Amino acid sequence: MGSWGVKALESDEGLEVLDLVEGLTRDREQVTADDLVAAAQESGLLGDDPAVDEYLYDMTALALAEILTGDTAHLADPDFAGTTFVATPAGTATLIEWLSQLQDGDPEREFRELRMHSPEHADHVTATLNALTGAR
Q1: Distance between CA atoms of 136 and 119, rounded to whole angstroms?
Q2: Does pTM surpass 0.90?
Q3: CB neighbours of 130 closer than 8 A, spacing ≥ 6?
Q4: φ/ψ of residue 91, rounded to 5
């Protein structure tokens, strides 16, 4: 479990999500939030229940939200640069529910214990959640 920045995409878990999304977007002009969530669940990177305390799932949900909201300028050269990501009601709601758990869920949740004590991390989760709710 390595992390070199505030964003989920700046972590080992984020690299797994990037690899998944790069494969998903290959030869596609558009990918929906539903597509992102389904692919992550099928690959085992995201569970079905946001209330479950699993660090990998939490990081995956945050990384998917970063991608969906276009918070990827820090990436040197993502292989999905020509793909448009589209918010959809179900997929976006899933990510909102997940990020709400990160922001306001059980204080003993592993993600919250490891990352939310830092104002930068807390601000990032809040900003991503706000961007996601605006994307609906």
Answers
A1: 26
A2: yes
A3: none
A4: -65, -40
